[in-house]
Amino acid sequence: MEKWYRQPPHQGDIGISTRVRLARNVKQFPFKEKISSSGQIQLNQMVKSALKRMDLGHNKFGFIELQELSELERIALLEQNLVSRTFLTKPENRMLVLSEDHSVSIMVNEEDHIRIQVLRSGMDLEGAYQLCNKIDDILSETLDFAFDDTLGYLTVSPTNLGTGLRASVLLHLPALERIQIIPQLMKTVSRMGLVIRGSYGEETGVIGSAYQIANQVTLGLSEQMEISNLQNIVRQVMESERGARADILNNIEVIDEICRSYGILKYARMITSKEAYAHLSNVRLGVSERILEEVSLETLNQLLNSVGEATLSVRANQHLNARERDLDRARLIRDLI
Amino acid sequence: MLCERCSRNQATTMLTQRVGGRTVTEHLCAECAYKGGFSSLFNGFPFDQMVANLARTHRASGKRCPSCGSSLEEIVESGRIGCSECYTVFRRELMPTIENIHGKAAHIGKRPLHRKEEPPKRLLLAQLRDDLQKAVQEENYEKAAQLRDEIRGMADPE
Fold this sequence. Notes:
The complex is a heterodimer of chains A (337) and B (158).
Chain A: E1 15-24, H1 37-51, E2 61-65, H2 71-79, H3 85-89, E3 95-99, E4 104-108, E5 114-121, H4 125-142, E6 147-148, E7 152-153, E8 165-172, H5 174-178, H6 182-191, E9 194-198, E10 210-215, H7 223-248, H8 252-267, H9 273-288, H10 297-304, H11 309-316, H12 322-336
Antiparallel strand pairs in A: 1-5, 1-8, 2-3, 3-4, 4-5, 6-7, 8-10, 9-10
Chain B: E1 13-19, E2 22-28, H1 30-35, H2 49-61, H3 72-78, H4 86-89, H5 91-102, H6 113-117, H7 119-137, H8 141-155
Antiparallel strand pairs in B: 1-2
């Protein structure tokens, strides 16, 4: 089955991907710091049997005990945004429910008992939320979630109280970045109760002009309101980016940079991840604006999810050193582009 | 490495921004990152000074959640609530922080499915929880434990 990132993206010229997460806790168990091992194991079983009733169509759920994976496999999951860093710190008794196309990942015994995550190609907040909501309904048929009339769904961190819903859209903003408007944008967006941050590499800074915009307030708003607030802001940011692109693409230097990046990706024999992300970003701009016709956005999305260090090693079925990774990365990119 | 803003706590967040065409990188502790609005989207939450002060006052009273045994001090230290009952037991103390994050607000979103079907049980539980909170406030831990078991029994028929 094709992975989620191979699906045609909605508003893919700027929207890279959409992520919606719901945080839930089961009333009968204490939270993360206080739950016993046997409680954790029981919770895994309860989630497993609840989800076996769910019909995902052609898609199927796999149930993965985190401690049965190698460290490399676990890091690869993180690189593909399928688990959180917190989830990997202590793999004991943690379970990951992963759909075959990787669009649904459910972390059990993470910071909250259950984190339901749905990923979608491009900008598709409605679609992602609907599926998240459906999974939540199925789970709540058999699980009694911790809930309070005033505070809503009760969560380990008070920042997630209420709906427990975090929605984010990853946007490609090379033009706004080039005209140096991002810091101003960050301020404006945060005034609206949303947060924007650079993506790809918490340790390496903003790479590939990818920015994530997410909601922050989860109490006092309905799920629909949260989603539509975010949608409105994202649409406005997209419009500004489109305007800025129209301006910068009159510039032959920018076009030249895009085409050179394509040349490097097409012919390089070795490439670091940092370099790859930077050139993939330029090529994405070229493809979105129909300067480059040879590559599809689906292929670029696939590459974004495939060129991480651990992901390459897992693919090669052995631990690769930096040099081997750079070789493999360049080969994979040449094969797909 | 220490936080570059407060020079007090361990830096846990690396923040990179484009400022005036230059890339500026800062290493921040969780608290300063949160103040700057750059906290990790889902993880541990630094409580504000007000709750921290309350926690210190609480240490003297020894008040703990009868369900999971957490004290307010532990909650503040870890940035994590111990169990769903803690929200009842420490509600008064936690409310200012919750309002700081979300504003003065009450939940208007989705409700768990079973809640719509069984309002009497829900109301009874709410009553029991009120009683539990009262018992804890009066430091009547024997009664609190009894109420806790009753609440648990209702929540889980097994």
